[in-house]
Amino acid sequence: MRRTPGERQRRLELADLSMSATTPVTASARRGRVVTEAGRAGAAHGADGGRSVTAPTQLVTARERAHAVAHWLLCAAAEDVEAAQQRWREGGAALLACGGLFAAIRLPGYLLRAAAGTRDPGEMDACVRGALEGGPVIADPYADHYYALTPASTAWSLRDRGPRGLAVLGRGCYLGVPSPFPDAPQMRAYWAVPMESAGELCDPRLVRKLAQRGVSCLAAVGGAAR
User: Fold this and answer.
1) pTM summary value
2) Where residue 30 falls among pLDDT bands split at 50, 70, 90?
3) Are residues 154 and 105 in contact, defined by beta-carbon separation less than 8 angstroms?
4) Is residue 178 within 8 Å of 63, Cβ to Cβ?
5) How confident is the model at residue 46 (pLDDT cuts 50, 70, 90)?
6) Cβ count near 45 (within 10 Å)
7) Is the dihedral of CA 169, 202, 207, 115 positive or negative?
8) b/e map 91-125, b = 16+ CB within 10 Å
9) 154, 159, 149, 147: which is closest to 109 by C-alpha?
10) Contact, 131 vs 176, CB < 8 A?
């Protein structure tokens, strides 16, 4: 039986929801999938007598996205969900386990300052957002670290021969994660780049490139940026 364009679009939306609810997806991969699906829908509409048809859109509020992100983080990594939620209400960071659905690459502040060419926190956050294509990053200015959230399969050997302070936090490690709600109080750590969708993570290759840029910049100035 031939499906109408509306039915095909609905199947694409359901497939996307199913994937985002169960599978970590890098920010760049999610954008690529959206473009592909838009192309398919456009082709289907174009085949329908050449008429221009606008697919229905479903708006999602920032708070709804934050609820989805919070649910994903807590279900994926919280050993005590109630305690984690209480920490968020108090403005603290919930201690979540790495290695289940996500890992974290710890980037030392001196390396990012060199890569960004600035010490301004806002400009550094903007640099990280651009370099990692909007992938989620947590900043801890007190410890002078940034944490890029990546798929749990991320594994580097840079812990032994990489720059000082660079590490991959996987199974057996815990990370202090601030509340994903934009109006929540932030006492120490904060989202330098918020997680826009549940399960959306950084591409480890982009994190590696950012770290290597910092190393190159430091080498160029003889380490004076430290």
Assistant:
1) 0.74
2) low
3) yes
4) no
5) very low
6) 19
7) negative
8) ebbbbbbbbebbbbbbbbbbbbbbbbeeeeeeebb
9) 147
10) no
Query: Given a cut of 50, is residue 16 above it in pLDDT?
Result: no
147, β-bridge pairs: 106, 138
The 3 state secondary structure assigned to the chain is: CCCCHHHHHHHHHHHHHHHHHHCCEEHHHHHHHHHHHHHHHHHHHHHCCCCCCCCCCCCCCHHHHHHHHHHHHHHHHCCCHHHHHHHHHCCCCEEEECCCCEEEEEEEHHHHHHHHCCCCHHHHHHHHHHHCCCCCEEEECCCCEEEEEEECCCCCCHHHHCCCCCEEECCCCEEEECCCCCCCCCCCCEEEECCCCCCEECCHHHHHHHHHHHHHHHHHCCCCCC
Six-digit token pair at 78?
């919280």
| Tokens 């002078």 -> residue | 144
Pick the more confident residue, 188 or 175. Answer: 175
pLDDT digits (tens, 9 = 90+) for 159-181: 445 678 899 999 999 999 999 99
Neighbours of 134 (CB within 10 A): 19
Tokens of 143: 């410890």
Amino acid at 152: A
Considering 18-27, 34-43, 60-69, 159-168, the range whose residues carry the highest mean pLDDT is 60-69
Rounded to 5 degrees, what angle do the CA atoms 12, 13, 16 make? 85
